[in-house]
Specification:
- This protein has 489 residues and is α/β, with parallel strands linked by helices.
- It has two domains: 282 residues, Zn peptidases (Aminopeptidase, 3-Layer(aba) Sandwich), CATH 3.40.630; 145 residues, 3-Layer(bba) Sandwich (Glucose Oxidase, domain 1), CATH 3.50.30.30.
- The chain is 36% helix and 21% strand.
- It has 16 helices and 16 strands.
- The strands form two sheets. It has an eight-stranded mixed β-sheet with strand order 1-10-12-11-13-16-14-15.
- Helix 13 links the parallel strand 14 and strand 15.
- Helix 3 runs antiparallel to helix 16, helix 4 packs across helix 10 and helix 4 packs across helix 16.
- The longest helix is centred in the middle third of the chain and has 20 residues.
- The protein is elongated and about 70 Å long.
- The termini are close together.
- The N terminus is likely disordered.
- The structure holds zinc ion.
- The site of zinc ion (ZN) has 5 residues, from helix 10.
Length: 489
């Protein structure tokens, strides 16, 4: 009901806008539920206004990619991960890195630098081992999944049931599964489709009496290393240990099982869950000239990581470009009308906890407080453009902004966005948001594995991503209009 009224009101605003009222700082722009790209009816005055930002975008790009800031984002990321290593929720390393980033943000001249509390799960990986004991002996490299329980001391020795899919598993009778280790070997069908085996495999197998699950690592490519990730137990299921093994071992086990061989595994895991821990989101700002604490543009990435690798890619890169975009804009003397707020989320990997706590704490005035959300959490390889999620009116304006990114050769646009897990707390309810589109075809090769290191990050590409982030955030934050949002209550 309320939404419809808002739409009608915004329709009127468009008429006013095209009659030249834009110059009087109309705070919202909209059109009648436009359908396709062609139906965009951005007033020409606004199109021209956005085009007018081209010289500023060019300046931002040349300073960050080819000027005094070139290479600096990579250096700062390397210093962060070399100093603190992996940053798992609940760990001292994460909390120390939060303190460090706060100090560095202050040294960079960011404003209102502070942290806000967020409860996060506290899970600790212990000793983990899996051995194929029959029909021959082989070590099976594995990584327990976040929040998994461990095995009893000394481990468990059990025969294997191997399946390719949940559908295949459904055909099995409970007596075929009871007391067994279930090995799920799904083919890679893209992350979104395949990851359900990692997140739900233990719950599915437990219902038929399995004693543990081992899952093919969720990756399209492997050179023999396992990938970890989150999982959770359904309400009421018996919690059984759950880990990922390598693609190579998982596929071998499935082949052998299908030939009718009896396969036995000795699995020992000392992983443990502790009481939730209070971590912190890290925040710094470039305060707007006109609006200080309303209509804020958020740029974000998550500072926490898995405990394997060092989280340089996931999501050190996203965190650093968000922080450094503000550092460089400030150093260039560029201050937009609205505040740009960098938020480095905590507790993302174990279930988007930092974003949730921030949403809850800022709920009361959120429609006034926030204008637009950016999040980079799908790689910082060579940028291609920006993904967008939001209403058609916001999309039409945003499309014009993306066209400014020609100096970076990053003018591609897609909607809806396939990134932005933390900001989904807002975008799922009608706030507009964007995610960094980049040449991340190899992202899941390294994701959640020991391979997530500085070797994956390229200084030049990181500069380009930072420039894209800084330029897009600046333009959105400085426009004469706020980006339209139709938020459900
Ligand atoms: Zn991530």
């Amino acid at each position: 009901m309320k939404t419809r009224l808002n739409l009608a009101l915004l329709g009127l605003l468009v008429l006013r806008a095209s009659a030249g009222v834009l110059d009087n700082r109309v705070d919202q722009y909209g059109s009648d539920a436009a359908k396709g790209v062609d139906s965009c009816t951005v007033p020409d005055s606004l199109v021209q206004e956005i085009k007018g930002y081209q010289p500023i975008v060019n300046k931002i790009v040349s300073k960050i990619v080819g000027g005094e800031f070139a290479g600096k984002t990579w250096d700062s990321l390397a210093e962060l991960v070399d100093t603190f290593g992996a940053r798992l929720s609940g760990s001292e390393q994460l909390e120390k890195s939060i303190d460090y980033v706060q100090e560095q943000m202050k040294l960079d001249g960011l404003e209102n630098v502070h942290t806000e509390d967020a409860p996060v799960p506290h899970w600790v990986r212990g000793y983990e081992s899996a051995q194929l004991v029959a029909p021959f002996k082989k070590n099976l490299p594995l990584l327990g999944l976040g929040t998994t329980v461990g095995t009893p001391r000394g481990g468990i020795i059990a025969d294997v049931v191997a399946v390719e899919s949940f559908e295949e598993f459904e055909t099995l009778k409970p007596e075929q599964v009871k007391g067994k280790i279930v090995v799920f070997v799904p083919q890679w069908e893209g992350y979104g489709k395949t990851v359900v085996y990692r997140s739900k495999g233990a719950s599915v197998a437990s219902r038929k009496g399995a004693v543990a699950t081992l899952i093919r690592s969720v990756t399209p490519f492997s050179i023999g290393s396992p990938h970890t990730g989150g999982q959770d137990y359904d309400e009421g299921v018996n919690k059984i240990p759950s880990a990922c093994i390598t693609v190579e071992d998982a596929e071998m086990i499935l082949r052998k099982y299908r030939r009718g061989e009896t396969i036995t595994i000795h699995l020992e895991m000392d992983d443990r869950n502790f009481e939730p821990f209070v971590s912190r989101n890290t925040i710094g700002e470039l305060v707007g000239t006109t609006y200080t604490n309303s209509s804020v543009v958020v740029v974000s990435g998550h500072l926490d990581s898995w405990d394997v690798g060092v989280g340089a890619m996931d999501d050190g890169g996203g965190a650093l470009i968000s922080w450094k975009a503000l550092t460089y804009l400030k150093a260039m003397g560029l201050r937009p009308r609205r505040t740009i707020r960098a938020i480095l989320w905590t507790g993302e990997e174990l279930g988007l906890w930092g974003g949730k706590a921030y949403k809850d704490a800022h709920k009361e005035n959120e429609k006034k407080e926030f204008n637009f959300f950016f999040e980079s959490d799908i790689g910082t390889f060579e940028p291609r453009g920006l993904d967008f999620t939001g209403n058609k009116d916001a999309e039409c304006v945003f499309r014009e902004v993306v066209k400014l990114m020609t100096p970076l050769n990053a003018t591609q646009f897609e909607t809806p966005s396939d990134g932005g897990p933390d900001i989904s707390h807002w975008t799922s309810r009608g706030f507009p948001g964007a995610s960094l589109m980049n040449k991340n075809e190899k992202y899941f090769w390294f994701h959640h594995s020991a391979g997530d290191s500085m070797a994956v990050e390229d200084p030049k590409n990181l500069d380009k991503c930072t420039a894209l982030w800084a330029a897009a955030a600046y333009v959105i934050a400085d426009l004469s209009i706020s980006i339209p949002k139709y938020v459900s209550d």
